[in-house]
Amino acid sequence: MDETDVMPRGDLTVRIPAMPADANANGDIFGGWVMSQMDLAAGIRAAERARGRVATIAVNALTFKKPVKIGDTLCVYSSIEKVGRTSITLAIEAWTKARASNERTKVTEGTFVMVAIDENGRPVAIAAETLAE
Ligand SMILES: CC(C)(COP(=O)(O)OP(=O)(O)OC[C@H]1O[C@@H](n2cnc3c(N)ncnc32)[C@H](O)[C@@H]1OP(=O)(O)O)[C@@H](O)C(=O)NCCC(=O)NCCS
Fold it and tell me: Which one is the CATH code of 3-116: 3.10.310.40, 3.20.20.80, 3.10.129.10, 3.40.50.2300?
């Protein structure tokens, strides 16, 4: 276990309990459910930075390291790694918190690329951040 498996990196953006309907026949939570919570977190964070609509253009290097169990709380952390002309690259980490303890475990990590879009769904330039923000 390295340092990045001890403390979540980024801002807590989504918290949600893993429910029985999200589980597969083994009783573990579907990877697709975890990925969708990570996509939501990336979308929230990118839309705040872009101050408008965003769409997911790429998901890179997603690694499912540990299973998620029914009843775990999934906590998704986001950090902005890069802002391009129209795109925002975010590091997204999903951690679980067990019901009976405060123990946190990193379960999934990956890089999401979101594109700022206009009302017609076309890429738009992202405004520079000012010091006041
Ligand atoms: C998002 C969308 C509007 C972008 O339009 P586009 O014409 O393909 O975009 P562009 O080629 O102009 O690229 C836009 C930005 O994305 C980046 N980009 C494009 N493909 C990428 C990839 N595979 N990985 C990382 N970044 C990528 C470009 O470098 C550019 O970034 P920059 O402006 O910061 O330099 C369009 O691809 C789209 O509608 N995709 C579907 C989105 C969607 O429905 N997502 C949900 C999936 S279910």
Answer: 3.10.129.10
Question: Does residue 121 line the site of ligand 1, with CB under 6 A?
Answer: yes
Q: Where are the beta strands (DSSP E) in the chain?
A: 11-17, 54-64, 73-83, 87-97, 104-116
Mean pLDDT over each residue of the chain, to the nearest integer: 94
- Which ligand 1 atom minimizes the distance to the CA of 123? 3
Give pLDDT tens digits for 110-125.
999 999 999 999 999 9
CA 114 – ligand 1 centroid, Å: 7
Query: Does the CA dihedral 47-22-35-12 come out positive or negative?
Result: positive
Amino acid code (one letter) for 104: R
For residue 38, report the distance from its CA to the centre of ligand 1, in Å: 18
Among 56, 39, 20, CA closest to 108: 39
Reported as a pLDDT band with limits 50, 70 and 90, residue 133 is: low
